[in-house]
Amino acid sequence: MTILVTGATGRVGRHVVDQLVKRDAPVRVLTRDPAKADFPEQVEVAQGHLLDIDALRSAMSGVSTLFLLNAVTGDEFTQAIVTLNVAREMGIDRIVYLSVFDAKGAVNVPHFAVKRGAERMLEQMGFGAAILRPTYFIDNEAMVKDVIVNHGIYPMPIGGKGVAMVDARDIAEVAAIELVRRHDADGPLPIETINVVGPETLTGERVAAIWSDVRGRPVAYGGDDPTGFEQNMAGFMPAWQAYEMRLMAERYVSHGMIPEAGDTDRLTAMLGRPLHQYRETAEALAAA
Questions:
Q1: Residues 6+ apart with CB under 8 A from 124
Q2: What is the CB neighbour count within 10 angstroms for residue 260?
Q3: How far apart are CA 222 and CA 214, in angstroms?
Q4: What CA dihedral angle connects 142, 145, 147 and 150, to 10 degrees?
Q5: H or E stretch including 172?
Q6: Alpha-carbon dihedral of residues 248, 279, 17, 268, nearest 10 degrees?
Q7: Coil, helix or strand for 118?
Q8: Which residues are registered as beta bridge partners of 45?
Q9: Do 4 and 30 contact (CB within 8 A), yes or no?
Q10: Which residues contact 54 (CB under 8 A, 6 or more apart)?
């Protein structure tokens, strides 16, 4: 039986595939364009997307375990619920689902709220699932690198409560560990929720200080007001999505993303190594 990975050409999904290949796990990916997939030869490639029911059924044939990652789109909730229904129809009851930190609490942020809806389906329909709840991705900083480097401003309004930013490589390795564990189990394992956090809880001021140190020149925090952030996002994404990013930023400012007791220790025990730190990404982006 095979492990099916969705979202495999994205930042996290590609790392998940790499981690599964390292573990000699049988992997199939679902992608819209196989010509652009560029995976190792042992990875099976199925063409299609999550709202293409025939392609989804075909991709799920012979699959026991599913990694479900939905992109932030206007129909994200529909994609998630349809995919889980087809998985149930095809007899797949071992799921690793990429949700988001504090999915229960952030009810007004669309791509947080829809993930809680998918979590509820997993809980109430008897799936054996690992629900991964990552915090803000450190890798997102690539989007604001030019502002930091060229203008000396850290523009992400993450506030002063603190956000335990996490590296996509850590998310992917935790996902791969859970996928293999569930794939190899004699039967479906119980639902389990894992907060996937970083090793440091960072404020806007602290992140600016890290960048100041890395660059050797001052970088200031742009402040908590998300208005400018929304306007900048609207320059390269639809207005509804830029507004959604604003709502997410407002949540960072009002609540932060603060790990629960034991979250970091649990992850380091799973991985058998320390979590990647923010400074690593800052140094790599500055060097590039």
A1: none
A2: 10
A3: 18
A4: -150
A5: helix 168-184
A6: -90
A7: helix
A8: 29
A9: yes
A10: 48
> Is the pTM for the entire model greater than 0.90?
yes
- Can you read off the two tokens belonging to residue 119? 């979590």
The CA distance from 6 to 17, in Å, is: 10
Residue 262 bridge partners (DSSP): none
The whole-angstrom separation of Cα 279 and Cα 268 is: 18
Strands 2-5 and 27-31 come out as parallel
The answer for residues whose C-beta is within 8 angstroms of residue 150's C-beta and 6 or more apart is: none
Q: Bridge partners of 66?
A: 4, 95
Contact 45, 28 (CB under 8 A): yes
Residues 6+ apart with CB under 8 A from 52: none
Cβ contacts of 167 within 8 Å, gap of 6 or more = 137, 138, 139, 198, 275, 276, 280, 281
Identify whether the C-beta of residue 128 lies closer than 8 Å to the C-beta of residue 94: yes
Tens digit of pLDDT per residue, the chain (288 long)?
899 999 988 889 999 999 999 999 999 999 998 887 889 999 999 999 999 999 999 999 999 999 999 988 889 999 999 999 999 999 999 999 999 999 999 999 999 999 999 999 999 998 999 999 999 999 999 999 999 999 999 999 999 999 999 999 999 999 999 999 999 999 989 999 999 999 999 999 999 999 999 999 999 999 999 998 899 889 989 999 999 999 999 999 999 999 999 999 999 999 999 999 999 999 999 998
Amino acid in the structure at residue 285: L
CA-to-CA distance for 68 and 285, rounded, in angstroms? 29
Q: What tokens does 127 get?
A: 């799936």
